[in-house]
Amino acid sequence: MDPKPLSIWNRVVISALSLIGFVGLWQAAVSLGGIDSATVPGPFQVWQAMVRSDFLLEDIWTSTRRVFLGFLMAIVIATPLGMVMGISRWIRVIFNPILSLIRPLPSMSWIPLSMIWFGIGEEQKVYIIFMGCFASVLVYTIEATMRVDTNLRMAARNLGASRFQEIFYVILPASLPTLLSGLKVIMAIAWTCVISAEMVGAMSGLGYVIIDANEYGNTALIFAGMMGISVTVLLLDIAFRGLEWLLLPYQRGVK
């Protein structure tokens, strides 16, 4: 028999206590000399660096905006193409070789070409994020589409549904849980891409904050930039869970 699931309140309290305990142990290790604060600053030092940085919130917003633009572009282009590839074997045969060439390339490999094509402006940063996410979104969409129960598709066809209706009313809702789970993973990949892009030829963003702090040996600000990434991604993950709760009402009771 499955144990009784924890309530939302219990999960919040346990998670908060776990985080407080981790931060407390971290600060204690630094304060007692177990860790050299010059190389690994304590939470209090990191907090001070965040407070003293006049532009950290602006840099967080800059990176978040770039992530959203590149990420949404990848979704808008890759999701319809992925569904078509998931439905049609011939389309998969045509595009799979191209996908196999693009998928292994890390986002950093696109930096030199993107600087040649777009310079070092916003378009270059967004392009790197787009290329870092596109193949992953495409693969997740193809897999999610191919896992849709064939009986559901056949029932829709027997009821006279057109191909568009089949995609919109059957395939999309059925593949949405898998696709949303994949997009949460890809969101983290998008952040990896933007940090890589901002470490080269950028004057703003969290990647720039981290690399600039490294030049001056400011480890506290490096940690502050890293914490900015972690907190932002955590908030986005919570937003994704809210989106799942809204779009997947039939899964709200599933643990």
Provide tags for this entry.
single chain, 0% strand, mainly alpha, 2 domains, 255 residues, 10 helices, MetI-like fold
In short, what is this structure?
With 255 residues, the chain is mostly helical. It has helices spanning 8-31, 43-52, 56-87, 89-102, 111-118, 122-146, 150-158, 163-198, 206-215, 219-247. The chain has 2 domains: 1-35; 39-251, Orthogonal Bundle (MetI-like fold), CATH 1.10.3720.10.
The secondary-structure class comes to mainly alpha
| CATH architecture descriptor text of the largest domain | Orthogonal Bundle
Order of helices and strands: HHHHHHHHHH
Percent range for helical residues?
over 70%
Could you explain how this protein is built, in words?
With 255 residues, the protein is mainly alpha-helical. The chain has helices at residues 8-31, 43-52, 56-87, 89-102, 111-118, 122-146, 150-158, 163-198, 206-215, 219-247. The mean pLDDT is 83.
Write the layout of secondary structure elements.
Blueprint: H1 8-31, H2 43-52, H3 56-87, H4 89-102, H5 111-118, H6 122-146, H7 150-158, H8 163-198, H9 206-215, H10 219-247
